[in-house]
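User: I've been trying to design a sequence by hand for this structure and keep getting stuck. Would you show me what you'd pick, starting by listing the structure so we're on the same page?

Assistant: Good idea, let's start from the same input. This is the structure you sent:
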C-alpha cells in the first residue's frame, strides 16, 4: 500500500468516527428537545418577563429612590420620584405577524433547551472523539471535563438570563416616550435572546478550553499573560458584531474576564514546564 493510501485511510477513519459522534449528539438533542417541549411555554414566559419592566433592576431602583427620599426629600419631590415608585408594571406582550410564527419560536426554544439538556452527552462524545490522541492519564480526566464543561455552560447561560438580559431589555424600554411605544416582534426577540444564551455559554467555556490546551502543552501561562492586549482586542472585535453599544459592552467585558480567569487557571492547574527544558532553554539563550 502506498504512502498516499496510508494517509487517506486514517482520514476516512476520522470522518467515520466524527459521523458516529455527531449521530449520537443529534439523537441526544432530539430527545432533549422532546423533553423540553413540555415546558417551552414556561421558558418563553420567563424570557419575556423583563418587558413588563419588573426585574431586579426595578427593585434596586426602588431602594435607591427610597433612600433618596429619606436623605434628600427636596430632590425626591422635585424630580417626582414618588411617581416612579408608584408606577405599575406595564402589560407589554410579544407580537407576531406571520402564520405559525409562535410554533416555530416554540421549536427554536425547544431545540436550544434540548441542546443544553444534552450537554453531558455532547461533551462526552467530544471527548471520545479526541481520546485516541490522549495519554492514559489524560483519558482519566473525562468525568471532570464533562462535569465542569456542562456546569460552566449552564452558569454562563443563567448569568446572561438573570443578570444581563434584564439590562438589555431595560435599556431598550428606556427609549419609550409619549408617541413612542415598544412593540417587540416575537421571532426577533426570542432569536436575539437564544443567540446570546449560546454565546454566553460558550464564553464561560473559555477557561476550560484554555486549561485543556495547557494540559496538552499547546499554550502556556507565559503565552496567555503576554498576549493580554490581543485578547482585549479580540474581545472587542467579537463584541463588535452586535449593532448596539450595550450588547457589545456586556459581551466584551465577560469575554475578557473569562480570559483573565483562564490565565490564572493555567498558572495554577496548567502543565508545568519541565525544569530540564527550562535549563536547556536558558543555556541556549546564554550562549
Amino acid at each position: 500500500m502506498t504512502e498516499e493510501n496510508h494517509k487517506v485511510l486514517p482520514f476516512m477513519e476520522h470522518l467515520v468516527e466524527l459521523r458516529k459522534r455527531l449521530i449520537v449528539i443529534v439523537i441526544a438533542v432530539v430527545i432533549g428537545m422532546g423533553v423540553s417541549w413540555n415546558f417551552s411555554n414556561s421558558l418563553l414566559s420567563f424570557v419575556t418577563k423583563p418587558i413588563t419592566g419588573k426585574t431586579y433592576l426595578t427593585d434596586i431602583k426602588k431602594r435607591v429612590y427610597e433612600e433618596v427620599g429619606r436623605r434628600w426629600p427636596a430632590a425626591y419631590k422635585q424630580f417626582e420620584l414618588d411617581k416612579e415608585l408608584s408606577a405599575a408594571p406595564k402589560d407589554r406582550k410579544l407580537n407576531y405577524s406571520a402564520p405559525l410564527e409562535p410554533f416555530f419560536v416554540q421549536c427554536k426554544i425547544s431545540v436550544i433547551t434540548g441542546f443544553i439538556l444534552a450537554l453531558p452527552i455532547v461533551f462526552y462524545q467530544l471527548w471520545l472523539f479526541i481520546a485516541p490522541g490522549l495519554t492514559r492519564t489524560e483519558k482519566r480526566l473525562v468525568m471532570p471535563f464533562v462535569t465542569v464543561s456542562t456546569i460552566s455552560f449552564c452558569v454562563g447561560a443563567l448569568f446572561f438570563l438573570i443578570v444581563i438580559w434584564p439590562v438589555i431589555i431595560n435599556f431598550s424600554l428606556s427609549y419609550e416616550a409619549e408617541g413612542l411605544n415598544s412593540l417587540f416582534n416575537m421571532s426577533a426577540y426570542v432569536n436575539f435572546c437564544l443567540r446570546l444564551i449560546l454565546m454566553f455559554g460558550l464564553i464561560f467555556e473559555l477557561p476550560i478550553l484554555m486549561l485543556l490546551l495547557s494540559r496538552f502543552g499547546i499554550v502556556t501561562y507565559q503565552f496567555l499573560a503576554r498576549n493580554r492586549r490581543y485578547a482585549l482586542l479580540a474581545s472587542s472585535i467579537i463584541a463588535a458584531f452586535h449593532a448596539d453599544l450595550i450588547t457589545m459592552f456586556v459581551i466584551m467585558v465577560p469575554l475578557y474576564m473569562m480570559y483573565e480567569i483562564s490565565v490564572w487557571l493555567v498558572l495554577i492547574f496548567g502543565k508545568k514546564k519541565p525544569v530540564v527544558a527550562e535549563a536547556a532553554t536558558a543555556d541556549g539563550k546564554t550562549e
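That's my pick for every position. To get oriented when you compare it with your attempt: The two ends are 47 Å apart (CA to CA). Residues 3-176+183-280 form one domain.
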